[in-house]
Design a protein that fits this description.
single chain; about 325 residues; mainly alpha; three-stranded mixed β-sheet; two-stranded antiparallel sheet; 11 helices; 5 strands; globular; transmembrane helix; sensory transduction
Length: about 325
């Protein structure tokens, strides 16, 4: 549509992986489809097991259940459209569809950052103040912390998305990414975006860097407490309760920080796509695997739930 000297953009085109050959895109489709199915099944399994098994009703597993819900939402926002661009070359996305995808990407991303910080605080209290742990991390407190983590996604998603899509888009509509992330979309704006970029940097610091610093501070205290424990068995048990979370945090934040805290000119669009794949596609798949394989309580609960479901004769 033309309006004055501007072309009003009604839809966007996701460049995705269109530079690759059709054969490579077909292989990527199969790979990402398998990852997508494993992610959904793994996180649903975590939700069912931590809900059904009475031994997994502690705050740590309550927060893990919330993390699995977030990972499922994160995947549903990004992966189905990406699969469509690969297999049927459905690269167009409506203006409203792009805004909706970006909104929920911000929402789930900010909520996950805050929830990971909440989980670190839970481990800090459990290891550094075990006698008061049942009082500090009671059901009401856990529900409030989880609700606060989920709610944190609303302001950043609302402000960022509304602001971006209030700008005029007056020409090119090709988004050089596999989903509607803010940097490639804001690059299509034909107006001064310096004030928005300052706000976006502030939001990134608040919702990515600040939770990361809280996690880092919690683990400094946790490791200090563990090293002061007299018995080797006590150290092993204490570390095993937080090793899975620490690994998940490392995977998520390493790629997120490399994506959003590096200068634009230092990373090519293709490298940014690879980094984005790490925290939008790969990490959600690895989380349930990490918590299942590295956690003896979850493995035991899986056996108990399977035993009750199938019966002893079928095992």
């Amino acid at each position: 549509m033309m309006w004055g000297n501007w072309t009003i953009v009604n839809e966007f085109v996701l460049v995705s992986f269109s530079a690759l050959s059709s054969e490579l895109q077909a292989l990527l489709f199969l790979l990402f489809l398998i990852i997508y199915m494993v992610t959904l099944m793994g996180n649903v399994l975590i939700i069912l097991v931590t809900t059904a098994d009475s031994a997994l009703q502690s705050p740590m597993y309550f927060f893990l259940r919330n993390l699995s819900f977030l990972e499922i939402g994160f995947n549903l926002v990004i992966v189905p459209k990406m699969l469509g661009t690969l297999i049927i070359q459905d690269t167009t996305i409506s203006f409203l569809g792009c805004a909706t995808q970006m909104y929920f990407f911000f929402f789930f991303g900010a909520a996950e950052c805050c929830l990971l910080a909440t989980m670190a605080y839970d481990r800090y209290v459990a290891i550094c103040d075990p006698l008061r742990y049942p009082v500090i991390m009671g059901r009401r407190a856990c529900a409030q912390l989880a609700a606060a983590s989920w709610f944190s996604g609303f302001p950043v998603a609302t402000v960022q998305t509304t602001w971006i899509f209030s700008f005029p888009f007056c020409g090119p509509n090709r988004v050089n990414h596999f989903f509607c992330d803010s940097p490639p979309v804001i690059a299509l704006v034909c107006a001064d975006t310096s004030l928005f970029e300052l706000e976006a940097l502030t939001a990134t610091v608040l919702f990515i860097l600040f939770p990361f610093l809280l996690i880092l501070g919690s683990y400094v205290r946790i490791l200090s407490t563990i090293f002061r424990m007299p018995s080797a068995e006590g150290k092993r048990k204490a570390f095993s309760t937080c090793s899975s979370h620490l690994l998940v945090v490392s995977l998520f934040y390493s790629t997120a920080i490399l994506t959003y805290f590096r200068p634009r000119s230092s990373t090519s669009p293709e490298n940014k796509k690879l980094l984005s794949l790490s925290y939008t596609v790969v990490t959600p798949m690895l989380n349930p695997i990490i918590y299942s394989l590295r956690n003896s309580e979850v493995k035991a609960a899986l056996k108990r739930v399977t035993h009750r479901t199938l019966g002893p004769k079928k095992l």
